[in-house]
Automatic annotation (TrEMBL):
Listed PANTHER family: BITESIZE, ISOFORM I (PTHR45716), SYNAPTOTAGMIN LIKE 2 (PTHR45716:SF8)
Major subcellular site: membrane
Gene: Sytl2_0
Gene3D superfamilies referenced in this protein's UniProt entry, alphabetically: C2 domain
Domain C2: 51-173, 188-317
Domain of life the protein comes from: Eukaryota
The name this protein goes by in its record: Synaptotagmin-like protein 2
Region (Disordered): 1-27
Organism: Asarcornis scutulata
């Protein structure tokens, strides 16, 4: 059913709560992990408070060091998240859009029990001025939750092409609800067409298979972002979290100059106990291949999205409703291929 296939053993230790993985067979060379975790810009948001208040900050570009600087001063009159305790634990996070992955996020420290936090911190990006001027700055404020279920408190988006760079003073800006582009999915990164199935141990006969298996069939991806005129040279990475080692890592071949690549690639992870399915997460990410570095295009996470793995709070157990439903259907319909078309998430 596919032109390439990989099988890898995913053996869980119930005592250590960490997986030990040994590769049985693979047609691909093992490559070191570039990133152990990817997150949607809103993936950790479990809150439902309305945006309010203001944020004070200043922007500057250091020509000598080729560095973009965001001086985050303070916030006022933020929304209260925990009404019973009358508290919020806010922090500020920034991204450069549209390619959040390449520039990464920056964030301030967390200020506890206040709706008027004072930061006086500088968030820095090493970036050429010409590249910066085609970006937008997304600055958002969040309530920090110990379990990782953070709440969105408001944001502001600034077009840096039209910014007055002679203005280096601190200014106040009203925090707004989520931008319509983020809410309505205008920041479209493509969709992945795939099938998955779970084969319980012994379900095909005595000791066949000897351990549970998760089969992942990556069929194709449509409407990928095109980062350069020549097109996209894309491939898909796969991990089964919590393991991000070389042995867990598998990838497809690179499909060149195609924003609608067909991979038709199957990966099999064995060593699964049925109870492990609620604590593990299959992470599939799409990358644009270049000689010096690979650029993230989008990804999905298949799991129960509980925020916990073996009783430990983890930020990667953050599946969307669609991803959770897909995983749950696989768990309930064993030995059957479950097909889905899932949107890639931005970072």
């Amino acid at each position: 059913e596919s032109d390439t296939a990989s099988e890898i053993s995913f053996q869980f230790s119930k005592h250590k709560k960490t997986p030990s993985i040994g590769s049985h067979s693979s047609d691909m060379a093992s490559v070191s992990s570039v990133s152990g975790s990817v997150l949607s810009v809103y993936s950790g948001d479990f809150g439902s408070v309305d945006a309010q208040g203001t944020v004070e900050f200043a922007l500057d570009y250091d020509e000598k060091n080729r560095e973009f600087q965001v001086h985050v001063s303070q916030c006022k009159d933020l929304a209260v998240v925990d009404e019973k305790k009358g508290r919020s634990d806010p922090y500020v996070k920034t991204y450069l859009l549209p390619d959040k992955a390449r520039m990464g996020k920056r964030k301030t420290s967390v200020k506890k029990r206040t709706v008027n936090p004072i930061y006086n911190e500088v968030l820095r990006y090493k970036i050429e001025k010409m590249v910066l001027l085609i970006q937008k700055l997304n600055l958002s404020v969040w309530h920090n939750d110990p379990l990782g279920r953070n709440s969105f408190l408001g944001e502001i988006e600034i077009d840096l092409a039209s910014w007055d760079w002679s203005n280096r003073k601190l200014n106040w800006y009203p925090l707004k609800p989520r931008s319509l582009s983020a809410v309505n999915g205008v920041d479209h990164r493509g969709v992945m067409n795939l099938s998955i199935k779970y084969v319980p141990p012994g379900s095909l006969g005595p000791k066949n298979p000897p351990s549970g298996e998760v089969h992942i069939w990556v069929k194709d991806v449509k409407d990928l972002l095109q980062l350069r005129p020549s097109g996209v040279d894309s491939f898909v990475k796969c991990y089964v979290l919590p393991d991000t080692s070389k042995k867990s890592y598998q990838k497809t071949r690179v499909i060149k100059r195609d924003t609608n690549p067909i991979f038709n690639h199957t990966i099999v992870y064995d060593g699964f106990h049925t109870e492990d399915l609620k604590d593990a997460c299959v992470e599939l990410t799409v990358w644009d291949h270049e000689k010096l570095t690979n650029h993230f295009l989008g990804g999905i996470r298949l799991g129960l999205g509980t925020g916990l793995s073996y009783g430990i709070s983890v930020d990667w157990m953050d599946s969307t409703q669609e991803e959770v439903a897909f995983w749950q259907e696989m768990m309930s319909a064993t030995n059957e291929w479950i097909e889905g078309l899932l949107p890639l998430r931005s970072l």
